[in-house]
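We modelled the chain as a single entity of 189 amino acids. Its sequence is:
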Amino acid sequence: MTDPAVAALALALAGASSEEELAGLARAEADADGTWRLRAAVALLRAAAAGEETPIPVPDASTLFRVNRLVRRDEVLEALYEADLRGMPPDVEGLDELGAALASGVWAERAELDETLGAVSAEWRVERMPAVDRSVLRLGLWELRHRPELSAGVIISEAVRLAKAYSTMRSGAFVNGVLGRLAGEPRPG
């Protein structure tokens, strides 16, 4: 039996008309309940798309791609966090193609990303930041630099959601402030 709240969230995610609306739904869910229901809703959409019997309609490929992006960031963050702690490249097995590209791209540019992050977070040296916050900031900055198809607002909103879900409530404000300053820099595209 599917949790009705999970099914309702899955339907809301599938019906979202923009990236901003998706990010808003995900952020509201993180603020209310962490990420478990969001992940369960995405898993339900994936199951419906795979032809399994679910209480929701089968999402089209475009919708599934957009919704997968939400959880993809969670999965990429986990890989980056683990890599940071181990001091080794992220394990991208289990990530989809885009997720693997995100994790690998962030890891390859981490020294440059850290230099930029350190320059705007004068009171916090990057190496002293909590590992989760550091990984969230690296991912957000990398996306600001390499994902011109996404608005800065969506990227920052998702980074704040990740920080709140996996670190502390104060981390969300910190991530918002740092990435907000960096979003003012010229972006590609």
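As a brief sanity check on the tokenised model: The domain at 4-183 is CATH 1.10.940.10 (N-utilizing Substance Protein B Homolog; Chain A). Residues 61-86 form the longest helix (26 residues).
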